[in-house]
Each structure stands twice: as C-alpha cells, then as structure tokens.
Write a structure and sequence with these properties.
Layout lengths: L7 H39 L2 H15 L3 H16 L5 H26 L3 H9 L4 H31 L11 H12 L2 H29 L4
C-alpha cells in the first residue's frame, strides 16, 4: 500500500475532536493536580511528623507505581473495593489529578525549601503569622523557581493522557487507533497524531517560556 498523505485531511475533524478531549483531560486534571500538589508539598515542607508522613506515603506510592496501573486500579479495582463506579472520563481526569499531584508536591516542596530561611525568620520576627509569611514572602519567590519543573510536569501529563486508551477514553490516541483500524493507514494516521501532540506540547512550552521570562528572578 502506497503512502497517501492527502488522506489525512479526511480525518482531521475526528482527530481534532480527540485532541479536544486530550486538552480537556489535561487542563482539568492539572488544575486539580496543582491544588493537590501544593497542599501535599506544603504538608511535606511545614507539616508536623504525622502530616508529613501522610503526604510522604501518598507521594511515594504514586511516584513508585506506573500511571497505567493507577488508572486500572481506579477503573477496575475501586468498584470492587469500595463499590464506587466511575466513568472512563472521570477516571482519566482523576488519574491525572492524583498522579500529577504527587510530582507537583515534590516540586513545590523543593521550591519552598530553596528560599532562604532568613526571609521566613524575618517575617516571623516582625509579627507576621506563618501563613502570611508563606503567602506574601516565601510563596511569590518559590513560584518563580517552580515554573520550569512545573512546565515539564504539565507536558508529561499531557502525553500521559494517551495511556487512557486502555479504558476506552476517546482522546487523540484512541481516535487515531479507531481510524487506523478502519482503513489500515497506519503511517499517515500515526504521523498526524504525532504532529498534533507536537503542536500541543509546543504551544504549552511556548506559553510556559513566556511566563517564565516574565516571572524571572533578576
């Protein structure tokens, strides 16, 4: 079978719908992951022994297991253990939240602990409560430092959405597989899928570079 690149245009609408699902899962999942990761990271940085231990166990369990295993657990094992049945899309979003949150937690912890203790002590010395020191002094400086590694995690999470093919979520990779199964145009379809992933990650990288440049510490 000869390669016919023009046939790709016939499937662009379907691939764009799959890409929209990919972006939706990534955006919603990362919003939740950032919140969860920030909480877990601050628990690791400032929590007492019990709080620190809870965050530590969560982070190590998630970082020590593949995301595809986590997806399978949420979709197939959770209904058996807790009688909770969630649909594939919710499972996908929840998997990104939980998985990205663990990695973001370590990014947050590292950024927070990289800020000089003298700044924290100075804030406490003038009578500010610890939460205000974190919010107004440590937080803004730490945020600037966590942008590059946070950007890397965003890109990884976007690409991880391709793994949700195992539970039938209609994201970009699943859409490409369905199209390829119908017409056996593997070269054309998978090339188009790869290019669309490159476009999405490229746009995300460009946005993060712009933010990093504006927030750079002089």
């Amino acid at each position: 079978m000869e390669v016919n690149w023009l046939i790709i245009w016939d499937f662009i609408p379907q691939l764009l719908k799959g890409a929209q699902v990919t972006v939706h899962i990534t955006v919603v999942g990362l919003l939740g992951g950032v919140v969860l990761g920030a909480i877990a990271g601050l628990m690791r940085a400032y929590g007492n022994s019990v709080i620190n231990a809870i965050a530590f166990v969560y982070i190590e369990v998630i970082r020590g297991t593949p995301i595809v295993v986590q997806v399978m657990f949420l979709y197939f094992a959770l209904p058996v253990l807790a009688s909770i049945r969630i649909d594939p899309m919710t499972t996908a979003v929840l998997a990104i939240v939980i998985n990205a949150g663990a990695y973001i937690a370590e990014i947050v912890r590292g950024a927070v602990l990289s800020i000089s203790k003298g700044l924290t002590e100075a804030g406490l010395a003038i009578g500010l409560p610890r939460w205000k020191v974190i919010r107004y002094i440590v937080g803004p400086l730490a945020f600037r430092r966590l942008i590059p590694p946070l950007g890397n995690q965003f890109i990884v999470s976007l690409k991880d959405t391709s793994l949700f093919i195992v539970i039938g979520v209609g994201e970009l990779t699943r859409t490409g597989q369905e199209i390829m199964a119908a017409n056996f145009r593997a070269v054309e379809i998978w090339t188009a899928v790869a290019v669309m992933y490159l476009i999405m990650t490229g746009v995300l990288s460009l946005m993060l570079r712009m933010i990093e440049k504006r927030m750079r510490i002089l």
